[in-house]
Structures are given as C-alpha cells and as structure tokens.
Amino acid sequence: MSKDLEKLFTGLSGEKADLIILILTSQNIKAHAEGLHKAFDILVSSKDRQKALATIEAYYKENKYNRLKQQLQQIPISSFKSIPAFFIMGLLCLIHVSCLEYHIHEDMIFKYGVSALFILQGETYRAVTALLLHSDARHLLGNMAGLLIFGAPVISLSGFGAGPFMLLFTGTAGNLINAHFHKTAHLSIGASTSVMGAAGLLVAFRITQTGKPFRWNTLLPMIAGAVLVGMFSQGERTDVWAHVFGFLCGVLSGIFFFPLNRTINFPQKNTMALFISLLIIAAALLSATQM
C-alpha cells in the first residue's frame, strides 16, 4: 500500500466495494479496492479522505429517502379502491338522511350520543352508537372526507375486515376514555374519533415498519400526526379531547396491531374481524333499545 493512501472502509463485500468506488470516481476522487473474496478495503489519498467521507455520507443520506419513497409506493393505500370505506361512508349518510326524514334527529342524538353522565351510569353502548350520528351535513361531509383520507388507507393496509374493526375499536375506546375524562353531562357525536384513530393507526404503521420505533426519524410521523389532530380539531363545537384520545388509541393499539396482523395469517381472518365488528354494533343497538 502506498504511503499517501489511507483505508477509508474495511471488510466490505465486493458489491458494496464496487458501489463505493463508483460513487467516489463520479466525484473525481481516486480510489481503489484491495482484498480477497468477500472482504475488501477501500483506499483513497490522505488529502481526499475528508471529501470522500462527506461524499459517501451524502449519497447514503439521499438514498435513504429514495428507499423510503420506494417502500411507500409499494404499499397499496389507494383511498378510492377501498370498497369497505365507501360502504361505511354510505351507511353514515343513510343514517343521517333517515334521521332527518323521520324527524328524529335530536331524539337520536340525545338517546345514542356520547354522554359522559350516562356512560358512567352503565350506558356504554353510546360509545359505539355516537360514531354513527352527525349534527348536520357539514359535520357528516367532514367526517366522510376524513374516512376517505385516513380510514380507507388503514383498511387497505389492514384488510377489509381488520381495518373496519380497528376503526370501530379506536373510535369506541376514544369515546369511552373521553367520557371518563369529562365525568359530566358532556355530549358528543360523530365518526371523527374513529377518523383520528385512523390517523393514529397510520402513524403506528410507519413506526412499526422501521423495527426501531424510538429513533428520531421514526418519531417524526408522531409529530406529523399530532399536527393533523390540531388541524382537524378547529371549530366551535369540535370535541378536541375526543380527537386526541382517538388519535392516541390509534397509535398505541396500532403499535401492537400491525405486527400481529402481519404475523397472524389464516383465510378467514378478515371475515371474522368484519363479523365481530358487525356483532359489536348490533349488540350496542340492542342494548340501546332495552334502556
């Protein structure tokens, strides 16, 4: 080895050594590899060492984001191809129009809305039924848009049954926590808790994709999700805490759900999850009629 040459990297595979040589040569940095079999060293002139290190670091930093982009492109998350999401949106629209048509809108809100006072007295079904009701057309359209933006990708990532189940779970859990937080006659309705739960689930999906959930770059989705919660929590009648609890339920449950969902595979998984979701809704409605 020449005296003016220094080892830049050691013990590289042949493929990686070739890549490093190619990168440095493209920047007019002379380098060569020496070694045998699968252990190669990259040598550069001592005067070019710092420039060579900076060049390689810049390449891998840029390439990291390119790989992330490729990974995201491989994930089938098209909102407009999720039939269950459109079915949920249609159901919400049908319920709202029916309530207006039969002039029972206010009665339904009072009987089925999330009332902290009544939930604490045992009417827990309200945490589910409130997700199906909306105050007006603007409220309904806002949540339908939220389901298209956040809910549909969750369903695409999770499955036609597991996705709706997680939306129902996060919305219900968020409403229950919100009721116990207020402990008053506080009343709220709408699918926005599930929408925020979906946003939290998407954050959890990104975190669990890395395998190293507590690094700074993997916590960035959490910050972005928190910003989204703030953006979608504007408005005089918005239940901000329901949004916050829905989002947190989505993140926390998603951290456990997505790894399990990737691991557990059997043909009837989504069918069973969808059946359980419908069973929960039916049970909530049945409980409400008996009160």
From TrEMBL:
Q: Where in the cell is it found?
A: Membrane
The highest taxon in the source lineage is Bacteria
Which segments cross the bilayer? 83-104, 110-133, 145-167, 187-207, 214-234, 240-260, 272-289
Q: Name one Pfam family in it.
A: Rhomboid
Keywords per UniProt: Hydrolase, Membrane, Transmembrane, Transmembrane helix
Recorded GO terms, molecular function? serine-type endopeptidase activity
Q: Where is the Peptidase S54 rhomboid domain?
A: 122-258
* Transmembrane recorded as keyword: yes
Query: Cell inner membrane: present as a keyword of the record?
Result: no
Query: What is the topology of this protein in the membrane according to its UniProt annotation?
Result: Multi-pass membrane protein
Q: Name one GO cellular component term.
A: membrane
Q: What is its main location?
A: membrane
Which family, according to the similarity comment?
A: Belongs to the peptidase S54 family.
The name on file for this protein is: Peptidase S54, rhomboid
